Amino acid sequence: MSTVMLMEWTGVTKDQYNQVIRILDLDKNPGAGGIFHVAGFTAGMLHVLDIWESQEAFEKFQKDRLTSAVQKAGITTQPRVQFFPLHNIYVPNLEVIRKAGSSSMPSAA
Hints:
single chain; Alpha-Beta Plaits; alpha+beta; four-stranded antiparallel sheet; globular
């Protein structure tokens, strides 16, 4: 069953997040079982909402790739992570969202 992963991570900067994304190179090498990812910031905190095929798929990605990328980016704090079953997903204007966010999204370098 697909699962939602909600992460709140205090002390992570936009630059650190962007570095993690570049290291992971998800456009060319997506995480197995990853379906959807969105991230945003409030004062001093990174918020991530992902959809994964299963909690186990995320945990494998975290163990095999994410932890190393986080360390390389110099992130030393730990996130608060919650999982819950996916009930519904609705994205009627995905292209509009991509265009609106493209100026602030990191490029895959």
